[in-house]
Amino acid sequence: MTRIAFVGGGNMARSLIGGLLATGLAPADIRVAEPLAETRDKLGHDFGIATFAENRLAVADAEVIVLAVKPQAMPKVQAELRMAMQGQRPLVISIAAGVRLDQLERWLGNLPIVRCMPNTPALIGAGATGLCANGRVSPAQKALAQHIMDAAGLTRWIADESLMDTVTALSGSGPAYFFALVEALEDAAVAQGMPRDTARALAAQTCLGAGRMLVESGEDPAELRRRVTSPNGTTQAALESFAADDLPRVTARAVAAATRRGAELADALDKET
Ligand SMILES: NC(=O)C1=CN([C@@H]2O[C@H](COP(=O)(O)OP(=O)(O)OC[C@H]3O[C@@H](n4cnc5c(N)ncnc54)[C@H](O)[C@@H]3O)[C@@H](O)[C@H]2O)C=CC1
Ligand SMILES: O=C(O)[C@@H]1CCC=N1
C-alpha cells in the first residue's frame, strides 16, 4: 500500500489516477488537493477518492506527492508544501512542463524527486512518459515512480535532464500535433466535397491504424511508409508535395519552439522565486 497525494486535480491528475486505480491501487490510498470545488466533487464522485481544498491536508503522511499543477502555480504550491511537509521525506514526482530538478530541490529541500513528462493519452492507458530522477531517489523509489507512470502507458528513463524539454516537445505536446494533422486532413477532404463526419471518421481511423501498426509491428516507420507508396502512385504524389514544403524542417522548427518554451517556463520561475 502506497499513499499517494496529488497536488492539482486537473486533466493529467485525472488521467494518472484513472490508470492507478485500474492497476488495483485502493481509492483509500489516493488523496487529491484541488482548489476548484466542482473539480473536487467530480473526482470524488468518479473515483471514490478523498479530495481536499487545502494542499497541506492532502499531503499529510503521503509517501508520494505528485505535483500536477501548471508551472505558473509552482511558486504558490512550493511555499505551501514546504510548510506542510515539515519532517516528512516523501518521494516527489513533478509532471510540470519545464520545471527543473534543481528548482524543485531549491523549493522543497533535499528530497528524492522524479521529474516526469506524461501525455494526455494516459487517460486511456496509451500514454508515453519520460522520467528523470535526482541523485536522492533510491532504486525502490525509482521502481515506484515507474510503476505509477507505467499505469498510464509506456515509460522511458531519461538520463540527461536537459533532454526533458525535448521529451515535452516530442511526446508531451505530441498528441496535439497528430490532432492538428487529422484536423487538416479532414478539412482537405471536406474542401473536396466529402461530408465532415465521413472525413473525420476516415482521418481518425487512419491515425489509429497507422499508430497501431507502428507500435505493434515495431517496424521502422520509413519501411511502413514505403509499403504504402506505390511507384508513381497517389501516396508518392502526396509525399513529394510534403517534401517540396519541407515537412522535416517545418516539424523540427515546431519541436524547437516547444523545447524553447519549456526552458522559458522554468526561467520565468527562477525570476519569481
Ligand atoms: N495537458 C497535457 O497534455 C500535459 C500537461 N502536463 C503538465 O501537467 C501539469 C498539469 O496540467 P493539466 O492537468 O493539463 O492542467 P489543469 O489545469 O487541467 O490542472 C491543474 C489543476 O491544478 C489546480 N490548481 C491550481 N492552483 C493550485 C494550487 N495552488 N494547489 C493545488 N492545485 C491547484 C487547478 O485548479 C487545476 O485543476 C502542468 O504542469 C503541465 O505542464 C504534462 C504532460 C502533458
Ligand atoms: O502545453 C503544455 O505546456 C503542456 C505540456 C505538455 C503538454 N501540455
TrEMBL record:
Pyrroline-5-carboxylate reductase catalytic N-terminal domain boundaries: 3-98
Pathway it works in: Amino-acid biosynthesis; L-proline biosynthesis; L-proline from L-glutamate 5-semialdehyde: step 1/1
EC category: oxidoreductase
Superkingdom of source: Bacteria
One Pfam family here: F420_oxidored
Catalytic activity: L-proline + NAD(+) = (S)-1-pyrroline-5-carboxylate + NADH + 2 H(+); L-proline + NADP(+) = (S)-1-pyrroline-5-carboxylate + NADPH + 2 H(+)
Transcription as UniProt keyword: no
Keyword annotations of the record: Amino-acid biosynthesis, Cytoplasm, NADP, Oxidoreductase, Proline biosynthesis
Location of the Pyrroline-5-carboxylate reductase dimerisation domain: 161-265
Cellular localisation: Cytoplasm
EC number: 1.5.1.2
Entry annotated with the keyword Amino-acid biosynthesis: yes
GO molecular function terms attached to this record: pyrroline-5-carboxylate reductase activity
InterPro entries: 6-PGluconate_DH-like_C_sf, NAD(P)-bd_dom_sf, P5C_Rdtase_cat_N, P5CR_dimer, Pyrroline-COOH_reductase
Family assignment from sequence similarity: Belongs to the pyrroline-5-carboxylate reductase family.
Free-text function comment from the UniProt entry: Catalyzes the reduction of 1-pyrroline-5-carboxylate (PCA) to L-proline.
PANTHER family: PYRROLINE-5-CARBOXYLATE REDUCTASE, PYRROLINE-5-CARBOXYLATE REDUCTASE 3
Protein name: Pyrroline-5-carboxylate reductase
Source species: Rhodanobacter hydrolyticus
Record lineage: Bacteria, Pseudomonadati, Pseudomonadota, Gammaproteobacteria, Lysobacterales
Gene name of the record: proC
